[in-house]
Design brief:
Layout lengths: L2 H27 L5 E6 L2 E7 L7 E6 L4 E7 L2 E6 L19 E4 L4 E4 L6
């Protein structure tokens, strides 16, 4: 390995560390969303507050293939059940940041947290 190769490796490592630090900083300092909009077939059906002091609630939304279960737990929202075959929407996890979304394409259910986001 030549001296130039070593300098390139060091430069790439420094850039990677700085980029990773920027992503982590943004993730942990971003403001949390205040509300989430639940849509079925691109039509809003319910808006819920994302409040850390609120109690947990389960919402049932009727999609085009059947029921979707949505859990609102304080400032987080997630899909816990759906009538879709692959359950990808359930594996998207909890969301709380402006710009975040959970989408169930087969059931046409979408959860959006409005805002500029990432």
């Amino acid at each position: 390995m030549t001296a130039l190769d070593k300098k390139i490796v060091v430069a790439v490592l420094i850039i990677a560390v700085l980029a990773g630090g920027a992503v982590l900083y943004r993730r942990f300092t971003a403001a949390l969303g205040e509300k989430a909009v639940i849509e079925v077939d691109n039509q809003p059906v319910q808006t819920v507050r994302l409040d850390p002091n609120a109690e947990k609630q389960i919402i049932t939304v009727v999609g085009v293939r059947g029921d979707s279960l949505i859990e609102v737990d304080g400032q987080f929202i997630r899909m816990t059940g759906s009538a879709c075959p692959d359950k990808i929407c359930i594996h998207q996890g909890r969301k709380s940041q402006p710009g975040d979304a959970i989408v169930c394409i087969p059931n046409r259910v979408t959860i959006k947290i409005p805002g500029l986001g990432r």
